[in-house]
Design goal:
Layout lengths: L1 H17 L7 H24 L9 H28 L5 H18 L30
Helix pairs in contact: 1-2, 1-4, 2-3, 2-4, 3-4
């Protein structure tokens, strides 16, 4: 888990360094796009839950984690870009700088101990039957 956190931290700064590559470089596009689609959301999920996947997660759990991570990443990226646009300060490099900083802080803050009384988010199991598991016909 520590390697994952440090990988998230380093990836933001690698994406920022990739902006020094030529604008039409495929490496620049791939590195920056991968960072924007994965890392801010992954850092936020780690900050909120303390883990990426539930211990009992199967293939559906992995897909769910990927979708949630991608959606949160895009949401954070849009919020940062909107804030910079509203402040008349938007440049792609500046947006990546802010996102790399936020991602680093979120990834490293997830390792800090919580103050007493503040717990991590843990989903409550539902009493409803899962999809595809109809218990009504059992006797």
């Amino acid at each position: 888990m520590i390697r994952l956190r440090w990988g998230i931290v380093v990836s933001g700064w690698i994406a920022l360094a990739a902006t020094a590559l030529p604008e039409s470089s495929a490496a620049r596009v791939v590195i920056v796009a991968a960072f924007l689609l994965v890392c801010p959301g992954l850092a936020a999920v780690l900050l909120c839950t303390g883990r990426v996947l539930a211990p009992e997660a199967g293939r559906v759990g992995i897909l769910e984690a990927a979708v949630v991570t991608g959606a949160i990443s895009l949401a954070i990226s849009v919020l940062v870009a909107e804030a910079l646009f509203l402040g008349h300060a938007f440049t792609p490099v500046r947006a990546l700088l802010v996102l790399a900083g936020l991602t680093s802080v979120a990834a490293l803050a997830s390792t800090l101990p919580r103050p007493r009384g503040i717990k991590r988010f843990t989903p409550v199991p539902s009493s409803r039957p899962r999809l595809g598991h109809d218990d009504s016909d059992r006797d």
